[in-house]
Amino acid sequence: MKKSHIIALAVIAVAVAMIISTVGDASTYSDFGEAKRMAEDGNSNAVHVVGELKKDGMGNITGMVYEPSVDPNRFEFMMIDSLQNESKVVFNKPKPQDLERSEKVVVVGSMNLENQYFEAEQILLKCPSKYNNEGLEVEETAMIENE
């Protein structure tokens, strides 16, 4: 075998190993019911759950608990996933800024069966101000050509 063939095989083997290792670590999109079933089966892999903050009839957010004077690294809130399953979410880090303004919330973590809540490792926010153009004013100007 030529040296170039051996090097090519080694590069391919490394690439395949990298792909397999990243696929094994990838988390999946799910809902609270599926996260609970996975935890009951002993699967502790992280899942992404997409949902919204729980609101009352007036549109006010309910169930949010954050007391930085007691524990600045514990934030709790109620979330409703895309299949309308409701769960308490505990995030053991400070409360994310502008959480109340977010349109959708994605929590990454797993279900804690002992305490019956979803334990989030990460919170991702989709804020409407980042994605819409409301409030932007466009000013048109006429160009005058010099002849």
Question: What characteristics describe this protein?
Answer:
30% strand; alpha+beta; 3 helices; 7 strands; 147 residues; 5-stranded mixed β-barrel; OB fold (Dihydrolipoamide Acetyltransferase, E2P)
Would you mind describing this structure in some detail?
It comes from Jiulongibacter sediminis. Keywords: Cytochrome c-type biogenesis, Heme, Iron, Membrane, Metal-binding. One of its GO terms (molecular function) is heme binding. This is Cytochrome C biogenesis protein. This protein has helices at 3-25, 32-40, 128-131, and strands at residues 28-30, 47-53, 65-66, 75-81, 86-91, 104-112, 117-126. With 147 residues, the protein is α+β, with helices and mostly antiparallel strands. A five-stranded mixed barrel has the order 2-4-5-7-6. The termini are far apart.
**Computed Rg:** 23 Å
How are the strands of the largest sheet arranged?
Answer: 2-4-5-7-6
Percent helix among the residues? 10-25%
Q: Could you tell me the strand content as a percent range?
A: 25-35%
In CATH, the architecture is: Beta Barrel
> Which homologous superfamily in CATH is the superfamily?
Nucleic acid-binding proteins
Structural class: alpha+beta
- Biggest beta-sheet profile: 5 strands, mixed, barrel
Enter the CATH topology name. OB fold (Dihydrolipoamide Acetyltransferase, E2P)
Average pLDDT number: 82
Number of beta-strand segments: 7
Q: Would you list the SSEs in sequence order as H and E?
A: HEHEEEEEEH
Unreliable stretches covering 5 or more consecutive residues: none
Q: How would you describe the shape?
A: elongated
CATH class: Mainly Beta
Q: What is the domain total for the residues?
A: 1
Subcellular location: Membrane
Protein name: Cytochrome C biogenesis protein
GO biological process, one term: cytochrome complex assembly
GO molecular function: heme binding
